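Workshop exercise sheet. Pairs work together: one partner reads the sequence aloud, the other fills in the structure field after running the prediction. Swap roles for the next sheet.
Pair: D.N. / O.F.
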Amino acid sequence: MATEPRQPVTDRRTLIERQRELRALDAAFQELRNTTDGVPRARRKGLLALTGRAGLGKTALVTEARDRAAAAGLTVLSGRGGESEQGSAFRVVRQLMQPSLARMDEAQLHAFLGSWYDVVAAVLGLEARGAVPAPDPTGVREGLDWVMTRLTVQRAPVVLLLDDLHWADTESLSWLASFAARVEDLPLLIVVAYRPDELPSEADGLRALVADHGDRPHGLAPLTADGVAQIVRGEIGAAAEDRFCKECWSATGGSPFEAVELAIRLAERRLGGTESDLTAMRELAAAVKGPGLIARLERLGTATVRFAHTAAVLGSPFAPRLAATVAVLGDQAAAEAVRKLRAARILAEGHGPEGELEFVHPLIATTIYESIGTDFRAGLHDAAAQAVLAAGYGAAGAARHLLEVPCEGSAETVECLREAARAYLRAGATEAAGRLLDRALREPPRPRDRAAILHELACATFLIEPTATVRHLRQALAEPDVDPDLHASLVFRLTQALAHTDQMAEAERVATEEAGRAPNPRVRLRMQADRFVWGMFRADDRDSPARSRRLARLAEHLPGRRLEERYILGLRAWDAVMRGEPRRTALGYAEKALEGGMSWTDENRGFEVPASVALVFLYGDRPRRAEELFDRGIAECVAKGWCGSHLALGHTLAGYIRYRRGCLAEAEDLELRGLRIADRVEGAVPAQWFAVGILIQTLIARGRVAEARALADRHGFGAAPPNAVIYPDPRTVYAELLLAEGRHAEAAPLLLSVGEWLDGRAWRNPSWCPWQLHLAAALAPTAPREAAGHAREAVRRAREFGAASTVGQALHALAEVTCGPAALDLYAEAVDHLEQSPAAYELARAQVGHGAALARNGRLQEAADRLYQGLEGAVHCGAEALAARARGELSAAGLRPLPLRYAQAETLDTQELRTAELTARGQPVAVVAKELGLTEQGVRQLLSRVYRKIGTDAAGLAGFLADRTGRHL
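Structure field:
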């Protein structure tokens, strides 16, 4: 198989006394081939590390690994960190991936990368299609995972070789640490070499993986005296004396690099290795590194020294023509300098299209770079930046040199740094962009540019350090004569950053102030929307009723033509749900808000309002509509590389919708996916709370209470109120967990505090927060009359909202705390309402509860029918505990469970579809029954299945059928 470039310059003599490491490499390659060929074996670990201080032969081992892997038929992808290029974002990633991609034409690239093309284009040096928003770092890592996985599968088995990992750029290290933890099932081996004491914190995850791999970390030891003697005698002859060889070992410290270099120079001086040669040997050993190396370099002449200095500033590998330009040397002088430096074993031929050169060893490059005077070195960096730009290598290549140049107030420097930062932001390299913009501010820029640069810096730090974002934005707003459009963007970003740093009250205050003084009516309306958003999400808000009245007055006359107006309408819809206004009101505003479209990834608006509008449909018994909106939002996030907290919340809330529909297994999968993403994103605490709370509810519904408890404990999820509004409400979810554990006395006061909080805000919808239903259950054993009172109030509120699922769930709760025949009527009414809703799990609960109550009252035939229905629904929902309860109730009544009567499917059969069409046309049940030759009860059961399958109630049937057929009924 073909292999990838590029191979560092090494000497095979440095492999002496490295048999243990070579055997480990051979074994790992054989294991990799066996895995790929399908030979049965134990689970494989995909990482091998070679560690040691400078000069111990790590690069020689990596080079030998490359040769052996290629000889074994393995594909090799390689990269190498560079001391002078640690600030060049994704440099090592490009070394690994670009050679393979370079073989593809444009059409092949698009086919290979698929939907990830625009996300990773900037990282991999490809041309993006049109204007592409900056992806977040998590999205970029996901995209790179995709690329490397596809390369591995297509070219398996694959070996990744990474030398000098301690000098790899931060972004490449972060990606590698994340990816390496997930490669065990791929036909891939990662071989890394690094100096353990110099590995940066970004590689801590990788360090932990290496430590977990048993015998896989291989720390290289210095050569023994015998090893050094073997190298020396190999160059100057077997007659070299033992004492001489031992002194060589002492002079080199057992460093393979130094031993080889010393042996070569001994041979060049024709020394025989006798005691009389010891003085000359020590002089030669001193010249291998440190001051001795610099003295040797200076003897090569001024022009050669200048070329070597330039090479050290440019970093390995470098183009000789570029070095000549920076060193101000003509072609002949540059060629002579190269000849001398190669003869002195300072430089060697590299690998690349421009005849690149590189230093024989990184120690040489470091020594030469550190020997350059500070002022002269800064001048060389400045000249290098200009030469890099002139040669067409781009602003990012020049920017790393400008970081080493003193601040001089140069407008050109500022613009270059800003351009490079924009390129890094397009690649999701926010930290690298932040470093450049911070340096641009210190240049300093022209006063009129300062606010814009602070805004750019705030955008760069938003995902990684929101507290710094707040500081930058406040500084920008304090600048004089800020452009009005920029000012509005600064304020919006500031409110977002404040909210993300748990300062909801301050976010609301800033938006309120701006809404009162903004001269532009569109900006003013937008700030009003922001004020309402952050006020709604404040857990400590005391002005909620008044705010709702203001919002209702504002939204009443808005036509919704502009985006600012549609956001206000969307907020009005959400507020109507929270307050428990009639669902028709909420759904009407939601539909109006969506008429002109809403983006989930508008960088200047956020996704809170679009997500809230989608959830209006969920609480209004139109979960299919909510799912469609969430699917679009998630697709938007993925397409733009937003794979952090936005995507975590998207998957989590999509799982919540499936939970409310009763698709518990699918819900759990989505919620786990959201939680995994949230756990990987630094600072995504709200996303974690959403995911943990919803997943706890799902686990309880599935009967896995112990798992729910472990999840809550692991994430510190308990009775403490959050600072922001989270839904479902975390304290209510925790109380539900306490009830599932039988801890009623602990649940009751917690739920009472939730009720006091919600009633203070006039949020009275049991569909959004069923605290009264759970409180009734908590009080039933000790205070049944009080429990019934709370349940009756919940029924009243549910009827005001008007969603059949909410009314049915509240009636079920009231039935549970009601005694005597009245309970049977309440159960029957609950089932009737739930049959008219898409809430499959709640219907199954009510059916099992009704069946059990009928059995207790001796009505066994009716009980059997209800219990069979509930058992069937529980099984289809994946509610194992509920199914077990139904079977237990059947057994206690002397009845046997029957086989399931219908298969679970999302699609409607012919009879169900015809029933839906007739109902959508407004035909009453009696007419539909006559048309289809069924009983009225049979029609109701068919319709109940229709509602659960398609995820809507009767009012949403016409819209579903219109979408399905393309015509309105």
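Discussion prompt: The beta strands are 47-51, 75-80, 158-163, 188-194, 217-219, 347-349, 357-359. What would you look at next?
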